Amino acid sequence: MESNYQCLIIGAGMTGLTAARVLQSHGLNVAVFDKGRGVGGRLATRWSDNEAGERTYYDHGAQFFTVRDTSFQTQVDDWLARGLVKEWARGFADASGQPQHDGHPRYCAVNGMNSLARDLAKSLPVTTNAQVASVSPFENGWRVTLASGVNHTAASLLLTPPVEQSLALLDAGATKLAEETRASLERISYAPCFAVLVELEAPSRLPEPGALQLRSEPIAWIGDNHRKGISPDAFTVTLHAGPEFTREHWDAPHEVIAQKLLHAASDWLRAPVKRWQVHRWRYSQPVVTHPEACLFTDEPAPLVFAGDAFGAPRVVGAFLSGRSAAQVLLNR
Ligand SMILES: Cc1cc2nc3c(=O)[nH]c(=O)nc-3n(C[C@H](O)[C@H](O)[C@H](O)COP(=O)(O)OP(=O)(O)OC[C@H]3O[C@@H](n4cnc5c(N)ncnc54)[C@H](O)[C@@H]3O)c2cc1C
Q: Which atom of ligand 1 lies nearest, measured to the CA of 168?
């Protein structure tokens, strides 16, 4: 089976979903493919049942988001009005344990950050469990080959995975970019991050509002999912390691990673640990970004690179990059 579209979008994270919505609202025939089991990418929420049959929830990618942009504010106002999002805080405690409020709202999703991606994906033609293996030029447009062997074609292509992964898809399709374009993309880099998902036997002792933004090593962040409200039946906490610790321990066994981070966090948790799991984010957040909100090239065929490494980082940056990518494609 081979289908033909006006635009194919790789990645159903904040960037790809935002772009797909804009393009679809302008009548374009689009399709979105993601290798994940569900949509969302780094807007990630994991759940499982513990021994007592209670459901445990963890936000293990993005923890909260800020707005600072009118178009994103419109989207967030809609989520607020429908009860999908709430203001969590106006700043978090640092290592002193004292709240550091700066007046800017930090929002979180009431049912876990992934629910926002699921909301955006409603009524979009998204296929999950669809790993793209290669992309190559085809009749002035593109051919996208899935790992399953299925091909799709389109007039234009939007790549939203972390840039190294997007370049690997082009390489796999023996697709050459102009040297300058390739060099701009290769300058982009990301920090890795371990997330340790911890279930406690009792409430954590994290300061109000249930999170600590240390921005240091070995721990950068501790967030209490129970106090955030997404895990009402179990005391679950997410630890994020700093980039140095993560790089240094990238190949270490999960047991070693978890024990070191749990030890470093013990003064803040002060509750017995029931169970833990480790998630490795190879590309957690961009360190070196591209100055524009997306990168368009016509060579060898209409292609846009977008994501949180283009323009501004984080959830808001991904939203703006998705909109910008869609606008570039609509203007053609
Ligand atoms: C640990 C961590 C903490 C964070 N904390 C915050 C925070 O507190 N606040 C904040 O604003 N931001 C935070 N972020 C960043 C935020 O999550 C990202 O900026 C944003 O979600 C990026 O969205 P995106 O769509 O650009 O990329 P992604 O969400 O990564 O989407 C890319 C998608 O491409 C898919 N993909 C990749 N390769 C292929 C392939 N070959 N075939 C098919 N699909 C493919 C992936 O499965 C993925 O779904 C955090 C991120 C991490 C990891």
A: 41
Residue at 121 is within a domain: no
Q: How far apart are the first and last CA of the chain?
A: 29
In this predicted structure, the answer to whether residue 151 has a pLDDT above a threshold of 70 is yes
Domain that holds residue 175: 1-37+128-188+289-332
192, 316, 303, 184: CA torsion to nearest 10: -50
Distance of CA 42 from the midpoint of ligand 1 (Å): 3
- Cβ atoms 282, 193 nearer than 8 A: no
Please report the beta strands in 37-150, taking only residues with DSSP state E, as ranges in sequence order: 45-49, 55-59, 85-89, 106-109, 126-127, 132-138, 141-146
| Mean of pLDDT values over 164-185 | 97
Q: What pLDDT is attached to residue 2?
A: 66
Task: Supply the residue whose CA is at minimum distance from atom 21 of ligand 1.
Answer: 42
Cβ(16) – ligand 1 distance below 6 Å: yes
Instruction: Tell me how many degrees the CA angle 159-162-165 measures, rounded to the nearest 5.
Output: 80
Alpha helix ranges (H) inside 26-124? 70-81, 114-121
Distance 96 CA to ligand 1 centre (A): 30
CATH number at residue 20: 3.50.50.60
Strands 30-33 and 126-127 turn out to be parallel
Q: Is 10 helix (H, G, I), strand (E, B) or coil?
A: strand
CATH code of 206's domain:
3.90.660.10
**pLDDT tens across 227-241, in order?**
999 999 999 999 999
The mean pLDDT value for 37-58 works out to 94
For residues 266-280, average pLDDT:
96
Q: How confident is the model at residue 1 (pLDDT cuts 50, 70, 90)?
A: low
247, pLDDT greater than 90: yes
Using the mean position of ligand 1's atoms as its centre, give its distance from the Cα of residue 162 in Å.
Answer: 8
CA of 43 to the centre of ligand 1 (A): 6
Element (H, E) at 165: helix 163-172
Read off the pLDDT band of 4 (50, 70, 90).
confident
